[in-house]
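User: Hey, quick favor. My workstation is busy. Could you predict this chain's structure for me?
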Amino acid sequence: MPHKYSTALSHLILAGTGIYCLSRYHESTYKLPSGTYSIIITNSLLGVWKWGNPDYGHNVNKLYNFTSFLQMITSLPFIVTQVWFNLGYNQHEVAIAHNGASVLSLLLYLVDKSKEDVVDASIAINVISLGVISLLYENYYGVAASISYFFNHFILREGLFDIDLPVIDLYNYGLCFFCYF
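Assistant: No problem, here it is.
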């Protein structure tokens, strides 16, 4: 397994961003962002170990891959659901609508079936939901977060840029930007 210290650094920066964001929401009633940032921090610290430790980094491959997937399917839906809750839509239907596809994706992951289309559809629905509700309530941070996550998932993660940086580094820096908003 190649060891890329630049990738370990991008995970370290993302972990720091996650810790900062978690500290902002830790004492509040917002539970979903706390879950999101906890998953991001866990995955990032595992990434630092995996990519920055030439001797033992391979020992965390399975756990790192699982937390990477969990981060991908929960980060946006948890935040979108919390935004809707903050705007007074405290119904269970909102949570089910935004997080249901994440549960389906997780189940497909656990039984080792194809899940990419479900994940992409879930993320697209959540991006649109966050963008529309944020635009209607003039929450431009929400609009920026929506655009950031769309760009991060559908453009950076797919490697549509031909540059010298590894895709995973770009994805991590994109998540830092998303977390900021």
